[in-house]
Amino acid sequence: MSIVSIIGSGGMAAAIGGLATGAGHAVEVISRDAAKARALAEQFGVGAITGTFGAAPTGELVILAVPYAAVLDVVKQYGGALAGKLLVDITNPVDSDLTSFVTPADGFGALEIARAAPADAKVIKAFNTQFSHVLAAGPVEGHPSLDVFIAGDDAEAKARVSAFVASLGLRPMDAGQLSMARTLEHVCLLSLGLMTYSVKHTNFAIGVSLVG
Ligand SMILES: NC(=O)c1ccc[n+]([C@@H]2O[C@H](COP(=O)([O-])OP(=O)(O)OC[C@H]3O[C@@H](n4cnc5c(N)ncnc54)[C@H](OP(=O)(O)O)[C@@H]3O)[C@@H](O)[C@H]2O)c1
Predict the structure, then answer these.
(1) Is residue 92 within 6 Å of ligand 1 at its C-beta?
(2) For a pocket test of ligand 1, which of 33, 66, 132, 170 has the largest count of ligand atoms closer than 8 A to its C-beta?
């Protein structure tokens, strides 16, 4: 098992980090608030350490678990400290109206992150289509594993993220190149629409049903 670094100490950091430590991974929690990082690492227990915000993360795989509104600044602030890292973009760049995006019309979140990151960092979109509390709840008896859609240009990096996802008891579903991250970001709007108009709560998961 390898070290996975998580930048952020909120709901998604807690959900993914909890699954990761539960699966035997070492997790490095990094927050701009060192006390919050320590508290989350203590919650994870064995296998969790804290890192220094802005310093090179220990893990090769770095999960960007901060709001989209902050992520470009965070990535720029890290600068060369993220060189060569595999950056897992879990963000949803949804505007406050919950029906549109804050990203440029000709762009999407993962692309903006790739543009802000060092040239040799590899950006993979993943985890953005599942709610944090649904991930955190873990497997539900009688229901299939949750699907984690993945998009990225680097096959090796994508395989690495897929293996990490599978190790958490989730089902990795490769959706294609990084350009597909735009579509995965739209899935967030689908979830919000379903939540508002049909499901009426957030205890659901978007996934693929194989019927043949
Ligand atoms: N929640 C979900 O169900 C869900 C599902 C899929 C994807 N996502 C995405 O996952 C990401 C994290 O979501 P979340 O629910 O974990 O959010 P959250 O609970 O609000 O946590 C956000 C984390 O980002 C940190 N942060 C905020 N602004 C920052 C800045 N300018 N510089 C450095 N750190 C900053 C916060 O630090 P402080 O605690 O110090 O403020 C906190 O640790 C978001 O991009 C979201 O779109 C969320």
Answers:
(1) yes
(2) 66
CA pair distance 96, 77, nearest whole angstrom = 25
150 vs 43: CA distance, rounded Å: 28
Q: How confident is the model over 179-191, as pLDDT tens digits?
A: 999 999 999 999 9
Q: pTM of the predicted model, to two decimals?
A: 0.98
3-state secondary structure 74-95: HHHHHHHHHCCCEEEECCCCEC
> Where along the chain do its domains lie?
3-197
Q: Is the CB of 191 under 6 A from ligand 1?
A: no
Atom of ligand 1 nearest to the CA of 93: 47
3-197: CATH topology = Rossmann fold (3.40.50)
